[in-house]
Write a structure and sequence with these properties.
about 160 residues, alpha+beta, two-stranded antiparallel ribbon, about 25% helix
Length: about 160
């Protein structure tokens, strides 16, 4: 089932040979496309194993694996735009917990999903690892949100 040009109208980064890598936090690079399977409830997972941001106090780099899970509604995030968005944190000074919550908030605002979670698995620095978890759920998925939060506690 190929998409029409009209359906791909808002997708401008994918296939572009002149990709610009933002090095300062920039949520405006995020793009969406219409979910063709809105009657199905299904999960989409993104794994970004090379996320980088800066410590807001020291300026030292922090490295993490960011996992994004979501159940789409009408709109879905385009993966290349998501990659460029996550790359835009490269010179952004934010604590680990801030990064995960900013990503969650930006994606919820962009897509209005049924459910969305962002997990940060940050490399240890100073002998401590930090694994922030942030989630959003519509009314129908609040139980899932609660269960996923509890599961996150048990997995640590």
């Amino acid at each position: 089932m190929l998409r029409t040009e009209e359906e791909l109208n808002g997708v401008t980064l994918l296939g572009s040979k002149e990709t610009k890598y933002e090095t300062d936090y920039n949520p405006s690079v995020l793009e969406t496309f219409v979910n063709k399977h809105q009657d199905n409830e299904y999960l989409v997972t993104f794994n970004c194993p090379e996320f980088t941001a800066l410590c807001p106090k020291t300026g030292q780099p922090d490295f993490a694996k960011i996992i994004i899970n979501y159940i789409p509604r009408e709109l879905m995030v385009e993966s290349k735009s998501l990659k460029l968005y996550l790359f835009s944190f490269r010179n952004h000074g934010a604590f680990h917990e801030d990064c995960v919550n900013i990503i969650k908030d930006d994606l919820v605002k962009l897509m209005n999903p049924r459910y969305l979670e962002v997990i940060g698995i940050f490399n240890p620095r100073g002998g401590i690892s930090i694994y922030p978890f942030a989630s959003y759920a519509d009314e129908e998925h609040r139980q899932l949100q609660h269960e996923r939060m509890l599961a996150s506690f048990r997995n640590q």
